[in-house]
Amino acid sequence: DDELQTDGNRSGHLQNGELGELFAPEVNEEILRIIGTQLAEIGDQLDKEIQARVVNDLVQHFLNENLSREEITRYLSQAVEGLARAIPSDMEQEKALLVLAMVLTKKIANRVPSLLQRVFSTTVNYISQHLHTYIVRMVSAVKQ
Which domains does the chain have, with CATH numbers? Predict the structure, then answer.
């Protein structure tokens, strides 16, 4: 059931084992929805803190087709970690990194829609490499 969301995007349902490396099969969509809502609220707050220059620099890297997937992921990681240094210390570092990665992805895709697939893929790669354990802990905490 391909629902249309209020922002015009199709709803994200896990199908055919998508994101199987990140989530166990018993994780239901309601848990993911709860986590997503919490992260979206934090993202709205952090969105205002991200300077256009950071987004513009990342856009230029994503537009450079000569850069490998690893190089692009490294640039994204550097941007996320640089922005995270300015986040108040009362927020978990991993949560800040996760939300910043997602907000940057949104900003880049909004700025240059043709980059959506590349930036999404890079962000999933970044999250898988750097935040897998945190996501598993977060899902486990919500399930309890």
Answer: 29-143 (1.10.437.10)
pLDDT (tens place) for every residue of the chain, 144 residues total: 444 444 444 444 444 444 444 445 556 778 878 888 888 888 887 887 788 899 999 999 999 999 999 999 999 999 999 998 887 777 788 988 999 999 999 999 999 999 999 999 999 999 999 998 988 888 888 776
Kindly give, in sequence order, each residue whose CB lies less than 8 Å from that of residue 9, ignoring residues fewer than 6 positions away.
Answer: none
Classified as helix, coil or strand, 92 is: coil
Chain-centroid distance of CA 91 in Å reads: 17
Rg (CA), the chain: 15
CA angle 5-17-29, nearest 5°?
Answer: 45
Q: How far apart are CA 35 and CA 120, in angstroms?
A: 19
Give the residues across from 10 on adjacent strands.
Answer: 4
- Rounded CA separation 77/74 (Å): 5
